[in-house]
Write a structure and sequence with these properties.
This protein is an alpha+beta fold. The chain is 47% helix and 12% strand. The relative contact order is 0.07.
């Protein structure tokens, strides 16, 4: 779990800078790019012999105020700790994380003598019926899922006017934390994590749940390398018609990883939205940057709808063609051309991890090429769902190796057709 944000005035190092920056972004006080620029500025100043705290740089840049940083250091009501200390059956040990909507504490479940995590809504959120309803919905959704790659739900309840959700304690960090420290993952390491997430989503989808907020911050990593999908706060049952109707026209999700249909707020959002978000997460992991950037959440979401995706191997040429194909298939803007089951995505991911070609993603590309040939087009369609990206990226969008393989495949098929016609 994430550690507590750095209080104002407390000396910080690279790790503390990451946590403070994360807290500022989580609270929507700044963009990730603004925080990253301040962290980079601090590093340059330190090289020049001036060790200035990140908090001071953020304030001087006008990104946050000193009072906002103080509230970040203690975002929850002062009375929360004392209330939690009295929750029957639990011994609260320390605060381990805080976001804009809740605080998380490390505690011991006395009946089973085990360490757990307790998420609690602050008083201001507990007084909002909509947040309380969503909070309990998260607990019920998580309780129906039982998988090694999903954070386990243990208990949910209310005490002293505060609503709490007890869950498995994950002793580790998030993918978001890892990327903040090293920017990008190597292909093999990224696949190990994403394959586990695909298995988690396969289980959730089989149980009838859509997560709707797959992203690096919601992927926990244990010290032994196990990845666990966290935060069912936006999860919805696929068959919940009433909830779908109530949410029609609203965009639920995180702008950097949200699917086009979630942006449009369609009623029938299904498991393919999670596939898109997982693809966007993988894109970020192997390229070191999100698929689409913008000055506002609205501009970012508009790009998910309209802007072609720059192929990931144009940004990071070291990743394999197969990896790029899987990402582009998962991130097709038209969900009808994405993977049509989480199991199909998992098969392709496992094949790429073994150094083999992805069957589903490459098949979709081959079908499009044959369709173009049938209509007399000389050039193949751009690889992937959204095209090859901008001309500024300087590429055709098609790997020479892949193009050669597909043309050879098409030639064999055409020869077979000619032979059959001559009989």
């Amino acid at each position: 779990m994430a550690t507590e944000p750095t209080p104002v005035g407390q000396k910080s190092g690279p790790g503390m800078d990451t946590q403070l920056g994360k807290a500022v972004v989580d609270a929507r006080l700044a963009t990730a790019a603004e925080v990253a620029a301040c962290i980079a500025k601090r590093a340059k100043l330190k090289e020049a012999g001036r060790d200035i705290e990140l908090s001071e740089i953020l304030v001087k840049a006008g990104i946050v105020t000193a009072n906002q940083l103080k509230r970040l250091a203690n975002p929850a009501d002062d009375s929360i700790s004392s209330s939690l200390a009295q929750i029957p059956g639990y011994q609260v040990m320390q605060k381990i994380g805080a976001g804009a909507m809740a605080s998380v504490y490390k505690a011991k479940q006395l009946s089973l003598d085990r360490i757990v995590a307790i998420k609690i809504l602050p008083k201001r959120m507990s007084e909002d019926p909509e947040f309380v309803k969503r909070f309990y919905k998260e607990g019920r959704a998580a309780a129906r899922l039982n998988h090694n790659n999903i954070v386990q739900a243990i208990d949910v309840g209310e005490y002293g006017g505060f609503h709490y959700f007890v869950m498995e304690f994950v002793d580790g960090k998030t993918v978001y934390d890892e990327m903040a420290a090293r920017r990008a993952y190597g292909e093999a390491d990224a696949l190990k994590i994403i394959i586990q997430m695909a298995r988690a989503l396969e289980h959730a989808h089989a149980k009838g749940f859509i997560h709707r907020d797959v992203k690096p911050k919601n992927i926990m990593l244990t010290k032994d390398g196990t990845a666990k999908l966290a935060d069912m706060g936006l999860a919805r049952e696929a068959g919940d018609v009433a909830a779908a109707a109530a949410e029609k026209g609203r965009a639920y999700g995180t702008p950097y990883y949200i699917s086009p249909e979630q942006v449009r707020g369609v009623e029938d959002v299904d498991f393919r939205a999670d596939i898109y978000s997982l693809g966007a997460t993988l894109y970020h992991m192997v390229t070191g940057r999100v698929p689409f950037e913008g000055d506002t959440p609205t501009s970012i979401m508009h790009k998910h709808l309209k802007e072609p995706l720059v192929p990931p191997d144009h940004i990071n040429p070291s990743i394999s063609t197969g990896m790029a194909e899987v990402i582009e298939c998962a991130m097709a803007k038209d969900r009808a051309t994405r993977y049509q089951s989480t199991s199909d995505l998992l098969v392709d991911l496992e094949r790429v991890a073994r150094g083999e070609a992805p069957l589903q993603a490459r098949s979709g590309y081959s079908d499009k090429l044959l369709e173009n040939l049938a209509h007399g087009q000389d050039e193949p369609a751009p690889r992937g769902p959204g095209g090859p990206g901008d001309a500024a990226e300087g590429g055709s969008g098609t790997s020479p190796v892949l193009l050669g393989a597909v043309i050879a495949e098409a030639a064999v098929i055409l020869i077979l057709i000619i032979v059959l016609m001559m009989r």
